[in-house]
Amino acid sequence: MRLDKYLKVSRIIKRRTVAKEACENGRVSINGKVAKPSTEVKEGDIIEIAFASKFLKAGITSISEHVKKEDAKNMYEILLGEEDTEE
Length: 87
Fold this sequence. Notes:
There is one protein chain. The longest helix is centred in the first third of the chain and has 9 residues, at 16-24. The protein has a 5-stranded antiparallel beta sheet. The chain is an alpha+beta fold. The chain is 18% helix and 25% strand. The chain has a single domain, classed as Structural Genomics Hypothetical 15.5 Kd Protein In mrcA-pckA Intergenic Region, Chain A. It is globular. The protein has helices spanning 3-9, 16-24, and strands at residues 28-30, 33-34, 46-50, 55-60, 76-81.
């Protein structure tokens, strides 16, 4: 799955356009490398996102095309940072 879509489906970032912009501005990295919006993500990857004043580090635990809002938090595990972050 594409990184920008994963960020939206997992509700780490609420809108895909915002997720895409964050990736294009170099604020998102996967496994320590700056990632483009089209970068493919897989289970076990570590995502790091630098927000305006916050930082989030999360591990991908599952990937699903469609997920209910209450199940979205099961798609990742917070390793460092704030859980309810959005730009």
